[in-house]
Amino acid sequence: MKIIILGAGQVGGSLAAELASEANDITVIDTDAVRLRELGDRLDIRTVVGRGSFPTVLRQAGADDADMLIAVTSSDETNMIACQVAYTLFRTPTKIARIRESAYLTRGGLFHNEAVPIDVLISPEQAVTTYVKRLIETPGALQVLDFAEGKVQLVAVRAFYGGPLVGQELRFLRQHMPGVDTRVAAIFRKDRPILPQGDTVIEADDEVFFIAATPDIRAVMSELRRLEKNHKRVVIAGGGNIGERLAEAIETRYQVKIIEMNKARADYLSQNLDRTVVLHGSASDRELLIEENIEEADIFCAVTNDDEANIMSAMLAKRLGARKVMALINNPAYVDLVQGGEIDIAISPSQATIGTLLAHVRRGDIVNVYSLRRGAAEAIEAVAHGDARSSKVVGKAIRDIDLPPGTTIGAIVRNEQVLIAHDSTVIESDDHVILFVIDKKHIRDVERLFQVGLTFF
């Protein structure tokens, strides 16, 4: 595909890297020549220096025959105007824009071809809020992903010493839990992927991705690790967009405190949040944390816009006794450094956002895409179409499907029914198939499986 990306910041840069590795024709536009040069040196892409909303700049970037425009600059207005120009002058088929300001997002009917022509809206703040909320609701998980409108979840947990399944072969999972159907989709051991077979033995510290119907998730987790008690007390460091949305989303179910540095912002939050306790001060102030009984906090979540402040305050909170700490980290180089040490979970906003975008870049009928392991692996929800003549998957049992190397089918959702995938399961037309792809270079082959041959038409 020929794709133009506006904005070479964290999201734009990560997206360019992700898409360029899949043989797409990528052009990135930004006003910052230095940042573009760094990107251009690292990736096989074209770069154009200029304002992405200017018609001349878009034309220079190849808008005349582009398949898609992705506007992810830090300005909502620039993103909106760029989509308008791309639609009006170049008739660009797909226009995706990052819109952060909730004042735009709450107005129905604003984004369509007769008004502001944006096909897909992405809000990184909303993506991160949803991501963190799921982690809080699933104690002990490293990642929780929803498929088929929440009927199925893919959960990553760290298997730990003394867990019932550690040291056992995977086939024992079914004997252990006869009432629950689940499947291990992948195992990462010391960052190396292992494709699970029946005789694969789970070791302590393995990162295990398993898939199950949402109501069964907690039962499966209890096999891999000691079940953590449900969380009650949550402390959020940073009352910006993400902090405010997160508090709003969870304050009816948990006891929530927000620590906010800016006095005016703290006043605003205290007036606009119903049950959340708002504290004015620094999240890395040791005395403040002790005074607020940080040792009783189940979760400390640092979501300011400063990576270093998030890392330091989360480490401090952990030292002072918080049970689990999470930190929002924009710089990908930091994520691997800190996760799994003092910081339990590092949250990468660009990884949380990229899935939304990838679902629209993938060929075939792809409903959901999640980027996993910092982009190394991917979980995909694809819809099977056609019949036994026109489709490579419909009417076939899973054992007879020619899956690319490192690819597993985890589950199938048929109408309201969740079927955990077994070798004998036959795929029918309109099934939602959830796949796990360990090696990104086989993504194209997975897409081809779900594209319908000409006999279908």
UniProtKB/TrEMBL annotation:
NCBIfam families: PRK09496.1-1 (NF007030), PRK09496.1-2 (NF007031), PRK09496.1-4 (NF007032), PRK09496.3-2 (NF007039)
InterPro entries found in the cross-reference section: K_uptake_TrkA, NAD(P)-bd_dom_sf, RCK_C, RCK_C_sf, RCK_N, Trk_Ktr_HKT_K-transport
Entry GO CC: plasma membrane
PANTHER family: POTASSIUM CHANNEL PROTEIN 2-RELATED-RELATED (PTHR43833), TRK SYSTEM POTASSIUM UPTAKE PROTEIN TRKA (PTHR43833:SF5)
Keyword Protein biosynthesis included in the entry's annotation: no
Superkingdom of source: Bacteria
Pfam families per record: TrkA_C (PF02080), TrkA_N (PF02254)
Domain RCK C-terminal: 142-226, 367-452
Annotated organism of origin: Halopseudomonas xinjiangensis
A molecular function GO annotation: potassium ion transmembrane transporter activity
Residues covered by the RCK N-terminal domain: 1-122, 231-347
Protein name: Trk system potassium uptake protein TrkA
Alphabetically ordered keywords of this record: Ion transport, NAD, Potassium, Potassium transport, Repeat, Transport
Record flagged with keyword Ion transport: yes
